[in-house]
Design brief:
Blueprint (H helix, E strand, L loop, with lengths): L2 H13 L10 E4 L5 E10 L2 E5 L5 E5 L5 H12 L17 H8 L14 H8 L3 E4 L3 E7 L13 E7 L2 E11 L23 H24 L3 E5 L7 E8 L2 E8 L3 E8 H5 L9 H10 L1 E3 L5 E3 L13 H12 L6 H7 L10 H14 L3 E6 L4 H8 L5 E6 L2 H14 L5 H14 L9 E10 L4 E5 L9 E4 H7 E9 L1
Antiparallel strand pairs: 1-2, 2-3, 3-4, 5-6, 6-7, 7-8, 8-12, 9-10, 10-11, 11-12, 13-14, 14-17, 15-20, 16-17, 16-20, 17-18, 18-19
Helix pairs in contact: 8-9, 8-10, 9-10
């Protein structure tokens, strides 16, 4: 079987669990009768690019398709209307400049943003990169107070991409996390101000103001919105106001008492109600193993895990959960997860409530979900890491713990004698005393281990600088809350 045939079958596995064919998509088949739901994107020579409902694109040889599909592809390539490049909605005659005036930034051009390079779109909006993996990337800005979009101030502007093509935007306006956030990111997010007594009233007032401003700005230019339900799972599904323009859908949502958000997605994705096809274990296992790094010094580390920067608020649990879910092909957004976890003002998530809320979404996507309480055991960690699956670990991220982890991580870069390193860290761990400070509750991903030196690698949701840090098991045990969670297969 050649590579293109294998790729077609892989796509069949990915698409096989879609509940229904989304508008604008069709069923393609190959010579063996395998079927997928996708839309034509472009034809270059004898290679055709198609797009799945979730935004993933694949390029295959035209010869892999049935004779009828090959005829359709040729016609689609010759006709802009057939390829979806021309639209006939009530707002589609509006020029990009008119819609950009509503956005407040030069987001749109004559070409759909889904067809442009993600880096190019990010540059237009001044969005810095947040994460890059082999196939996906994200860009995020925690904006200044004078930054406006759709007539209101977004605290977070995030853009997601697959294979350098934008898949969606997530903008978060007034919300109970950012409105009462700490004054700094990273380790500084533990230094919270005391939330005011009337926090709930303040949040409601701010949310009502943003919701009205955004709806008014969009309605003035794009007309009255459609009102519909969008998303998946009990906690992830909500009421939306929707405006369409040239294959883009702008969705305005209010999670009562939690946040006001805007998503920009493909119209096809909006028509499907925000539901995406599940991905089988066969594909996910292969992808997870491909990201496993086995280093000469004995380190076994999962690479290519998406980074999510929680920003200056206590969203470590939902941000870490988003990373674990996206790593295994489950779409996630930390603000929606924070809603499920019933976060406090400024952050502070009930991990049990959070995971309870997202368990259904995880399992609906054919992923498993494990949790346990207990001591640190290398065999338990290795059981998952060796499959390319990270673990969520609840700990007390104390000053002493962070100082030790930062120091070790830096020193490790220059080690050449690993036997001497083992002796050094073993002696230091025996002498270290790390008291548990219950005010520093935190969640990280365990992403690796070294059985010989008895160390673990972990990753914080504080940006790329905290992507990989190291500590010994005995030291980790001193600050552990003895709770572990795994999104697996």
């Amino acid at each position: 079987m050649n590579r293109a045939s294998k790729l077609f079958i892989v796509i069949v596995f990915t698409a096989g669990f879609a509940a229904a064919q989304a508008p604008g998509y069709r069923t393609f088949t190959n010579a063996q009768g395998k079927a997928i739901q996708a839309r034509f994107v472009s034809l270059s020579g004898d290679q055709v690019t198609i797009e799945m409902a979730g935004g993933q694109t694949f390029t295959l040889a035209v010869s892999q398709f049935s004779a009828a599909d090959q005829d359709y592809i040729k016609q689609a390539a010759a006709s802009p209307a057939s390829s979806g490049k021309l639209f006939s909605g009530p707002n589609d005659k509006l020029p990009p400049e008119a819609v950009n005036e509503v956005v407040g930034h030069p987001l749109f051009t004559e070409a759909a943003i889904w067809e442009a390079s993600a880096d190019e779109v990010a540059a237009r909006l001044g969005l810095p990169p947040e994460s890059r993996t082999k196939t996906s990337s994200s860009f995020r800005s925690y904006t200044k107070d004078d930054y406006l979009m759709f007539g209101a101030h977004p605290y977070s502007v995030a853009m997601y991409a697959e294979n350098d093509r934008v898949t969606n935007f997530s903008l978060v306006f007034a919300n109970k996390g950012d409105l009462f956030s700490a004054k700094g990111g990273g380790e500084l997010h533990f230094d919270k101000d005391t939330p005011p007594a009337k926090a709930a009233e303040i949040v409601k007032t701010a949310m009502d103001k943003d919701l009205a401003a955004i709806a008014a700005a969009l309605t003035k230019t794009l007309g009255a919105p459609k009102k519909e339900r969008f998303g998946e799972g009990k906690s992830g599904r909500m009421n939306m106001q929707r405006w369409d323009w040239r294959g883009h859908s702008i969705l305005l949502a209010e999670a009562e008492g939690e946040y006001v958000g805007v998503q920009i997605v493909t119209t096809e994705f909006a028509e499907a109600g925000g539901k995406v096809a599940a991905t089988t274990d066969t594909i996910i296992r292969a992808k997870a193993l491909a990201n496993l790094e086995k280093r000469e010094n004995g380190d076994i580390v999962i690479g290519d895990i998406p980074m999510v920067d929680q920003g200056p608020k206590g969203y470590c649990a939902p941000a870490t959960a988003e990373r674990a879910m996206r790593h295994l092909g489950v779409p996630a957004d930390m603000y929606i997860l924070a809603n499920a976890g019933q976060t406090g003002f400024g952050g502070g998530t009930s991990v049990d409530l959070l995971l309870e809320g997202m368990a259904g979404q995880i399992r609906s996507k054919r992923r498993s979900f494990d949790s346990w309480r207990g001591d640190f055991k290398l065999k338990d960690i290795a059981k998952y890491i060796d499959k390319g699956v990270p673990l969520m670990w609840c700990l007390f991220s104390t000053k002493e713990f962070n100082e030790t982890a930062n120091k070790r991580t830096q020193e490790r870069k220059d080690v050449t004698d690993w036997a001497a390193w083992k002796q050094k860290v073993t002696e230091e761990a025996a002498a270290n005393h790390m008291p548990k400070d219950t005010e520093t509750g935190h969640v990280v991903l365990i992403i690796g281990y070294n059985a010989e030196t008895n160390e673990i690698a972990f990753s914080d949701s504080w940006g790329e600088r905290f992507k990989e840090r190291w500590i010994t098991l005995p030291e980790a045990e001193q600050v552990s809350q003895k709770r572990f969670y795994v999104v697996g297969f």
